[in-house]
Amino acid sequence: MHDYALCVNRIPVGILGASGYAGRELCMLLADHPSFAVAFATANEQRGQTVRVGRHTMTFIATDDAPLHQAQVVFSALPHGTSLPWVTRAREAGARVVDLSNDLRPGNGNSNGHETTNAPYGMPELGARTRAAIAAAGIVANPGCYPTSILLALTPLANAGLIAPGATIVANSASGVSGAGNAPKRELLFAEVAEDFRAYGVANTHRHLKEMSATLKTLHVDADLVFTPHLLPVVRGILSTITVPLTSALSDALAPYRNAYADEPFIEVTSDEPRLVDVQRRNVVRMTATMIGGTRTPTLLVRSAIDNLTKGAAGQAIQNANIMFGLAETAGLPR
Amino acid sequence: MHDYALCVNRIPVGILGASGYAGRELCMLLADHPSFAVAFATANEQRGQTVRVGRHTMTFIATDDAPLHQAQVVFSALPHGTSLPWVTRAREAGARVVDLSNDLRPGNGNSNGHETTNAPYGMPELGARTRAAIAAAGIVANPGCYPTSILLALTPLANAGLIAPGATIVANSASGVSGAGNAPKRELLFAEVAEDFRAYGVANTHRHLKEMSATLKTLHVDADLVFTPHLLPVVRGILSTITVPLTSALSDALAPYRNAYADEPFIEVTSDEPRLVDVQRRNVVRMTATMIGGTRTPTLLVRSAIDNLTKGAAGQAIQNANIMFGLAETAGLPR
Amino acid sequence: MHDYALCVNRIPVGILGASGYAGRELCMLLADHPSFAVAFATANEQRGQTVRVGRHTMTFIATDDAPLHQAQVVFSALPHGTSLPWVTRAREAGARVVDLSNDLRPGNGNSNGHETTNAPYGMPELGARTRAAIAAAGIVANPGCYPTSILLALTPLANAGLIAPGATIVANSASGVSGAGNAPKRELLFAEVAEDFRAYGVANTHRHLKEMSATLKTLHVDADLVFTPHLLPVVRGILSTITVPLTSALSDALAPYRNAYADEPFIEVTSDEPRLVDVQRRNVVRMTATMIGGTRTPTLLVRSAIDNLTKGAAGQAIQNANIMFGLAETAGLPR
Amino acid sequence: MHDYALCVNRIPVGILGASGYAGRELCMLLADHPSFAVAFATANEQRGQTVRVGRHTMTFIATDDAPLHQAQVVFSALPHGTSLPWVTRAREAGARVVDLSNDLRPGNGNSNGHETTNAPYGMPELGARTRAAIAAAGIVANPGCYPTSILLALTPLANAGLIAPGATIVANSASGVSGAGNAPKRELLFAEVAEDFRAYGVANTHRHLKEMSATLKTLHVDADLVFTPHLLPVVRGILSTITVPLTSALSDALAPYRNAYADEPFIEVTSDEPRLVDVQRRNVVRMTATMIGGTRTPTLLVRSAIDNLTKGAAGQAIQNANIMFGLAETAGLPR
Predict the structure, then answer these.
(1) Which of D195, D210, D213, D309 to mutate to test the interface with C (most CBs of C within 10 A)?
(2) B-chain residue closest to A193, CA distance
(3) Quick check: helix, strand or coil at residue A27?
(4) Is the ipTM of this complex over 0.90?
């Protein structure tokens, strides 16, 4: 178990499902967080094992043995479909919760936090109202990795009313393999993934489509989304390449982004081509946009890069917890 | 120099620019071809060097020293912009020529072979008329790698009149690094490409866009094309993911492909997801298609995989030479 | 099932355990073999599935359903420890057998083929006596991948009496991940292997040590072997770097190799540094040797590269079968 | 240029040769150092360019324009052979210098710091005397990456008199490609390195051999060293696998390491197998050792992992500067 001497005057946190890639990232980032201290970390399959987390070590316990009442905030990185009962239990034990699973996200468990579950969607850069909802929330539904890269690339256009009504937005994303988790599956073996590239979850069958569609609806976007994820032979990172039909051509393609994100600490609007190596191990979205020449419909090409485990999962979860506890939003987060 | 004893009764071929990746692939494939025999291979920078080509060896000479008159067919893998004069010279020396450069491709040097240069576009699967033009040609303009993967994925739709007029086709492609050649550039170093992924040549600025647009025009496609290439951390292979607005929904998305390509030895229409590992070192295009659900515009998602050095360059060049010399189209080509 | 029309006048072969990496390589190579034809291929987990093998397809059956009597030769790529009963059964059904498992290799099931099992060690390049034993054998114990790369690098020195008695030979090998098989294990996931390198099976605990020690003994080598395998983030290939104390310095470090292997079709003695890319998908061993300067004990540094799935497994198995059936030793094998 | 407002009360440092991989790592680590502030960074080829360094930016100037007198400490990451004149110039301008080049290392420019150049070898873990020499030094010769991984694995054995006199130590190392620098060379292209592995600088011809031999001599080791580096298809990290003949067998192979390094903040003695992923981006050496069974000469197998850019270059350089300026040795260094 983590050294409790370190926890004095820090907010105790619990991590459920700590042995997956997102869970390990949570352990790593929280071990060095200035205001949070890990009280417990659960991992059923590896319970009793002591693992290295940066320069610290941590011993996993069974999820059933989690002393939920000891934590003021619980991060659940449990698998989709199994997280919700533990979220409820942690909430009942008095903790506030950031749920990294799919269970409560818009289009799935709730309708963007305005209804039954009262779990706002934890994407702070959607704006001031979202941040206020997160600050007040008992439960935050942490966004999926693909939606983080795609929705934050569309929001400035949506808010400026630039997206052509009735149009089709085409979002092609490519993700590193850590996004698929560390359960041992043949198709994720090194010898199967190296030197390969392929689409999967095509034709809008990927779980994240609902989350994006529901959120675009709340942004009043009246367009269809075609989302095609691909599996990259890299460990970390997502690049989304998004084609957006506009109501009219932009003379400065970056202007909507620079306006919307001028004060955002975790968004980098750049005229360079965003690369995975620019964002790996950093809690940022890096994006650029360019008008396509020569098409009849004015069309914008947006490219957006994140680290799927940081801004796409554990980093954004901690960003949400920072907001929930009134800490600096950037506390403990690598930039 | 290659062992001439092997050349008896085989058609002598010359290779210009043999030290690049496409040139080396030509050497490798031609060294085992049943009907062609390499008479000479040029590589200015490596002239005088003997290199291993499969189980054979080959000694490069300077391009200026090429005995063009000894070859019945010359393959030019010289850089774009420098190939055309050598194509002309080889032709004047009596050889027929397959030009792997950009210099004579549609939208660049010629207008699909119907005009001045009389160099038909060497994409046999465009149909019987193209094959006839290749068979009769003195010079063939061998297609680019990206256009091979994209145009062959669109042709059956175009010929069936299925592409919605005035629409925007979105083609996202990802290519292995060998497509960028082996000139030493910092951005292509292992330490720069590994664990990375990024777009390049965006917003329809890539050289291959012209070639595709010109060809789509000859196919009577009245749609815009948005083409975005990406650099993959793999050595060989291209996957293109193409979103095509249709005039009406297809009940069987593969039907147009199965109809069009039933007799094509180098096209694999599949219900599986095409992967790079399925096509590497093979002279094939492997493709599938799926209707997207839930969009107002009926939209087809096509995925198409090739090896950029085989079907995307050297293999297709040999396929063209096979046609030019009345050989079996599949002779010497790995499937 | 494979198209039987192709089997006319070819020797029917069976493959047990066809879905592992070595088994798939056997399917691939045998599908194009001029004299063998695959009569059946078994894979319990994937029974009933039809898989693509190069340009052919093959349907797997359960191992229990294997019509062993239909095959004149059976290749067993079943897991170590489970192969021997099937080898016996296939032999009883009248087939000759090449066993790719560990079960009958020297130091394990037999004592180099001179005793009970009468299964000679199938490493043809050990010399004429070994080839004769293979030609006459009912069962051949196909060598392990590491031993192939190491023993063939030591044999010329051993036969020339050059290895210092009582010395310690240090063999460091690095293998691509396909050598670990395709059973889904967490430690073999892409996200665990990429950007990593580590030793395993250290301190002479690897299964292949016995096989090498037993064979060195039959070569009358009175030296200790320290063998340390490592896991490389590549799919295919083994490089062994071997330090050998000699009885005296060699003026020409390659001479013993050139003498020993002058007529070997599958051994390449080179003054270049052997690389994995030089041997991938080829049934060869590529090796070089250099005298170390400035050490008190004359010491030779040998580097030896193979493809673990070809010369290290399936290729060598077919090479053995070629010898068993009096075919050209190189038939159907990529060089 | 770096924001000078940040520099108040921090020690100004200069970086010569900031655009190579080690130079960039220096920029990255120093940008977040609590006590140093980057006053200037030079890069001739990229002079005038502003680059991103973590969340900061930096503008490179020409080396000739370096305001050497503004820096209290200068780090030279200039190429081997060109660094020494600049080291001298910086020293004359009043700065203390950490030289990351080969120019002043033992066996090259000096004799371990006891002579003319008065530049001690900056490997603090060699012991208290070395640390004292570094603290007092005007110039420190920062060790090479391979020597860091190998010498720190041998020092405890040497100091305990455990290495067999007259024996041959065999050190096989494998390094990520960043160790070869970012000058554009064909052999370092992604398409040349991926899926490959090969030795280079064999037979004790590598530049680092002298540095290791000279240092072993000062440790009174009377043994020969055979050093063989290899090129790994990874970006960062070195694993050294070292076979050491001992005077007698160890009952606890880790005891000498645990004793020697009990108080070292940057050395991790472990019973696990050291992996590159355990040390990447960390300023540590991670090592283990195992007695080999069954050899006549008692033999120890040591495995030692570092990040070549951190502990193997920039990190160790900052560790040395920390010592020179009386700061906490761990200040600003990732563990």
Answers:
(1) D195
(2) B277
(3) helix
(4) yes
